[in-house]
TrEMBL record:
UniProt organism field: Penstemon smallii
Gene Ontology molecular-function annotations: hydrolase activity; metal ion binding
Protein family per UniProt: Belongs to the metallo-dependent hydrolases superfamily. Adenosine and AMP deaminases family.
Protein known as: Adenosine deaminase domain-containing protein
Gene3D superfamilies: Metal-dependent hydrolases (3.20.20.140)
Xref: Pfam families: A_deaminase (PF00962)
Keywords: Hydrolase, Metal-binding, Nucleotide metabolism, Zinc
Entry keyword NADP: no
Domain (Adenosine deaminase): residue spans on this chain: 10-355
């Protein structure tokens, strides 16, 4: 019942990694294909794929495997399409999908062509209407298209999709800058921000700082994976940078909480991810409760719906049972996320209208 309710309400997803959101069935299919071609030994990876509880270290091993099976443009396009369809089927009405543009010379793939393959995937979604452009002129025409979007007498579902380009902590300062340059070039094609992610025990904050400063100075919002492992110096430096949002905030100490609350930096909370990777020992001690009580801006997210076998509705159902949230509270939590999306005011306005209509349809 709780889960049904969570599915029925509109939701906003702000922290979802494209390759981490890959469907289980697609991942298995692609791995088998590569096994048949002899590129990988399927029996050696089968247990990694089918395992459900993975430590943070194992999760990053799985990402390496996923990246091995998603190296060509066609596959990138396919998984993008499927991921959007899955979020839309879960009643996600606004999705900020993040991904690390990858260069792969053996496949003739550049960071730009990787991103173009992602855009192709967004365009090829047909089970739902997708609004994906950040450009105001294009927005206007996609909006008028929505008016005619009647199928068998019913208006098709609509999902807004925007992209964040991720900088992987493994890269050099130059490569980080390249990703920011690409994001700036692609602003008219749905790219609305930059993310810093990747294995949190690798790399140095100062390597990424010039690229992140540049993004910020160009008016491109930045979100950072922050405090996934205990690293007070980095957490302080990240908060001093004043990102528009941060993800996780698992290993904060008293002083860092104080600072975060003063600055009112919104937090993207990924409950299942934190528990599965053991960055938080149990939901009883999860910082969601304190931030929620303090009315700190936050949003529930999936992180890697495929890798952690979750969905945004499942995350809301989990929050409801763990922290005692009722239907109205869950709805309001989802609705408040509108304030912290990176898309433009036109999208915010339309989402507010969507939520107002849903509130009345759901008798709230
Ligand atoms: P991609 O950017 O679409 O390839 O999505 C997968 C990538 O997202 C991984 O290789 C990591 O760099 C990043 N990622 C996914 N989950 C996490 C996480 O929990 N912490 C840090 N980085 C992550
Ligand atoms: Zn993440």
């Amino acid at each position: 019942m709780e889960m049904e309710w969570c599915v029925s309400m509109p939701k906003i997803e702000l922290h979802a990694h494209l390759n981490g959101s890959i469907r289980d069935s697609t991942l298995l299919e692609l791995a088998k294909e590569l096994g048949e071609k002899g590129t990988i030994v399927f029996s050696e990876v089968e247990h990694v794929l089918s395992k459900n509880d993975r430590s943070l270290v194992e999760v990053f091993k799985l990402f390496d495997l996923i990246h091995n099976v998603t190296t060509d443009h066609k596959t990138v396009t396919r998984i993008t399409k499927e991921v959007i369809e899955d979020f839309a089927a879960d009643n996600v009405v606004y999705l900020e999908l993040r991904t690390t543009p990858k260069r792969n010379d053996s496949k003739g793939m550049s960071k730009r062509s990787y991103l173009e393959a992602v855009l192709e995937g967004i365009k090829s979604v047909d089970s739902v209407e997708v609004d994906f452009s950040h450009n105001t002129n294009v927005d206007a025409s996609s909006h008028s298209h929505a008016v005619d979007n009647i199928c068998n007498g019913y208006e098709r579902k609509k999902i807004y999709v925007r992209l964040l380009l991720s900088i992987d902590r493994r890269v050099t300062a130059e490569a980080a800058m390249e990703t920011v340059e690409l994001a700036l070039e692609m602003r008219d094609f749905g790219v609305v921000g930059i993310d810093l992610s990747g294995n949190p025990v690798i790399g140095q904050w100062l390597t990424y700082l010039p690229a992140l400063e540049y993004a910020k100075n160009q008016g491109l919002p930045v979100t950072l994976h922050c405090g996934e492992v205990p690293n007070p110096d980095e957490i302080h430096a990240m908060l001093d940078f004043l990102p528009m949002r941060i993800g996780h905030a698992c290993c904060f100490e008293e002083e860092e909480w104080k600072f975060l609350k003063q600055l009112k930096i919104p937090v993207e909370i990924c409950l299942t991810s934190n528990i599965r990777t053991e960055t938080i020992t149990s939901l009883d001690v999860h910082h969601f409760a304190d931030l929620y009580k303090s009315n700190h801006p936050l949003v529930l997210c999936t992180d890697d719906a495929g890798v952690f076998s979750t969905s945004l509705s499942a995350e809301y159902a989990l929050a409801s049972s763990a922290f005692g949230l009722g239907k109205r509270e869950m709805f309001e939590l989802a609705q408040k996320a509108i304030e912290i999306i990176f898309a433009c005011d036109r999208v915010k306005r339309e989402l507010k209208e969507m939520f107002a209509k849903a509130a009345s349809d759901l008798d709230l």
